[in-house]
Amino acid sequence: MIHRGSCLCGGVRFEVAGGIGTLTLCHCSQCRKAQGSAFVAAAPVRSADFRLLSGEELLQAYESSPGKQRVFCRRCGSPSPTRGRCSRVLASSSHFTKGR
Fold this sequence. Notes:
By secondary structure, the chain is mainly β. It has one helix spanning 29-35; strands at 2-6, 13-17, 24-26, 40-46, 50-54, 59-65, 68-73, 79-80, 82-83, 88-92, 96-97. The longest helix is centred in the first third of the chain and has 7 residues, at 29-35.
């Protein structure tokens, strides 16, 4: 199954071919600040299954803690899937679109 997602303005688009890991809720202070919410709902996907379709030039990263890059679209400010030090990409459940 192919899962597709994008940022709010649609400039950053991606797809995940394969499974999405277990959805987790993180409510640490950094996740709350980064998401503007009480928590973030995120799931890991294998890096090999992740493909950026468009918008690489719009991505901006901020290292919020050693080894943790918070990536966002510089046009609309939407958080984007992020890569840590492991072989997985962390995608928020809000990144995925249905029927697009």
